[in-house]
Write a sequence for this structure.
């Protein structure tokens, strides 16, 4: 369904489609029984939250160009998780998933760490650049 080897545009489209498939009591493809439905949801959460910690392949892109693309993709992941939380039991679904919450916390921690990174400019002066906010739309 979603893989970091897919083109980023395809991943973003799939995340948009997944957002439209969130209902009041479930999300993703609708299964015939409750157990299968919960397995589908768990698999979707696993694949989607993996995008928070793995970097998709952006072939031919240098780091400066890659950064806003990855941030935009991760923003779509957060949007999907927001839709899931809006369900009746959405917070429980995310909290009970074995890896979703830990991946989300890890992404938040990494982004905060980047905000406080110090960088040297060309003349050797120390400047504070909040790199995670440079490309926010």
């Amino acid at each position: 369904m979603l893989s970091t080897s897919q083109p980023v545009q395809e991943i973003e489209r799939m995340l948009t489609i997944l957002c439209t498939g969130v209902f009041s009591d479930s999300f993703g493809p609708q299964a015939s029984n409750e157990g299968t439905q919960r397995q589908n949801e768990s698999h979707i959460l696993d694949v989607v939250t993996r995008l928070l910690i793995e970097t998709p392949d952006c072939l031919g892109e240098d780091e400066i160009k890659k950064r806003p693309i990855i941030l935009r993709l991760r923003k779509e992941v957060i949007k999907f998780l927001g839709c899931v939380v809006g369900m009746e039991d959405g917070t429980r679904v995310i909290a009970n998933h074995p890896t979703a919450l830990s991946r989300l916390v890890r992404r938040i921690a990494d982004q905060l760490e980047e905000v406080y990174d110090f960088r040297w400019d060309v003349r050797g002066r120390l400047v504070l650049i909040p790199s995670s906010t440079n490309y926010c739309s």
Observations:
- The two ends are 27 Å apart (CA to CA).
- The beta strands are 118-120, 126-128.
